């Protein structure tokens, strides 16, 4: 059953996706006023996060710099007093300091009772008519025993270089919205593959260097013990 609280959350979800400035219903180039291609610094400034926050994570540094920034809007000082933000966590991903992906995970208790179409309609109010998948009009799927996670795509909004996909999660029972710049995401994916290749290629050399460093640390430690014991030993 959709409660009055759910209705308030749904209304805020629409407003939150739109952001502080009006967004054209066909414009998929931004989320909450943050445009794809934005820098890490500009996203930090817009979200109100501390510029020295440890939330910025370096995924890899070559052949391109890939970073992630996690933001929990529910704890943001910029959130209007008394408002309810259904987003539990928003993850921004960057390729060479350009935002290429936004993933929004919604708080399970704040979307409880809402149907797939409730969420689809809320996103459609911002991004226009979607393409629905066969799962869009199906009810919630019960998580099989032992299930850790699982996602089902419900709807997609596409236009030019940008795309948003709404997914239903099996466990926990919630929803996820993923937006991407297809061009930048392709570059990030290629960069990730190349980084993994370089890691495999350099693994023997890196492991040998780590083994030598460990041997040297042990030698120094053993020598320290020897020196101490030698000075204190009395036959």
Q: Can you walk me through this structure?
A:
The protein has 235 residues and is of the alpha+beta class. It has one domain. It contains five helices and ten strands. It has helices at 4-18, 40-47, 108-111, 116-127, 182-232, and strands at residues 30-31, 34-35, 56-60, 66-71, 87-95, 98-106, 131-132, 151-159, 162-169, 174-181. The N and C termini lie far apart (85 Å). The model is unreliable at 18-24 (pLDDT under 50).
Can you count the helices?
5
CA-based gyration radius = 24 Å
The total of beta strands comes to 10
Strand content: 25-35%
Report the average pLDDT across residues: 84
Helix content: 25-40%
User: Residue ranges: pLDDT <50 for 5 or more in a row?
Assistant: 18-24
Instruction: Name the helix and strand elements from N-terminus to C-terminus, one letter apiece.
Output: HEEHEEEEHHEEEEH
Principal-axis shape equals: elongated
Alpha-carbon distance between the two ends: 85 Å
Strand order of the largest sheet: 3-4-5-6-10-9-8-7
Q: What is the count of distinct domains?
A: 1
The largest pleated sheet is described as:
8 strands, antiparallel
SS class: alpha+beta
Short overview:
The protein has 235 residues and is an alpha+beta fold.
């Amino acid at each position: 059953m959709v409660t009055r609280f759910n209705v308030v959350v749904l209304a805020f979800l629409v407003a939150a996706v739109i952001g502080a400035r009006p967004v054209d219903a066909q414009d998929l180039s931004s989320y909450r006023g943050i445009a794809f291609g934005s820098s890490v610094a500009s996203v930090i400034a817009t979200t109100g996060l501390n510029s020295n926050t440890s939330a910025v994570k370096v995924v890899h540094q070559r052949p391109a710099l890939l970073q992630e920034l996690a933001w929990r809007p529910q704890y943001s000082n910029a959130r209007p007093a008394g408002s309810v933000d259904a987003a539990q966590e928003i993850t921004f991903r960057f390729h060479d300091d350009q935002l290429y992906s936004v993933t929004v995970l919604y708080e399970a208790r704040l979307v409880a009772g809402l149907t797939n179409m409730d969420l689809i309609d809320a996103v459609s109010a911002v991004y226009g008519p979607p393409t629905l998948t066969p799962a869009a009009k199906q009810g919630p799927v019960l998580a099989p025993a032992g299930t850790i996670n699982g996602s089902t795509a419900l709807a997609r909004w596409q236009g030019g270089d940008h795309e948003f996909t709404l997914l239903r999660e099996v466990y926990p029972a919630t929803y996820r919205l993923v937006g991407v710049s297809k061009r930048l995401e392709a570059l990030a994916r290629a960069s990730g593959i190349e980084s993994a290749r370089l890691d495999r290629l350099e693994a023997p050399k890196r492991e040998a260097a780590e083994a030598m460093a460990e041997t040297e640390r042990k030698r120094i430690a053993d020598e320290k013990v020897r020196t101490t014991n030698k000075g204190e030993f009395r036959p």
